[in-house]
Amino acid sequence: MKTYKNVDQYIKSADAKYQDKLAQVREIVTKTIPKAEEGISYGMPAFSFLGKPLFYFAAMKGHLGLYPTSGPIEMLKKELVGFSTSKGCVRVLWGDTVPKGIIVKLLKERAREIKEELK
Is the pTM of this model over 0.85? Predict the structure, then answer.
């Protein structure tokens, strides 16, 4: 696994044809949850919120991987019909548009979960 110092380095080291989409995801996260802290975890861009994992994303061979943890995926499963998903991942094919609305909903649901966990 490659080691990255920060998200900028991760995006710049990705294949040039994927960099714009990776930057779009980063921007969606930072605009939706402004207090999210950015870093690298598990070799990919990672965001935490109130000290808890919020969202990860990665450039995979055939898709853009979105990792909001399992709760938001389960909660929004009806809206994720048409996406390939697993317990903790939503896969977006590289030829598809970055699904801003879905990402925003996943982020808001995860942030809600985190706040609930901390009560």
Answer: yes
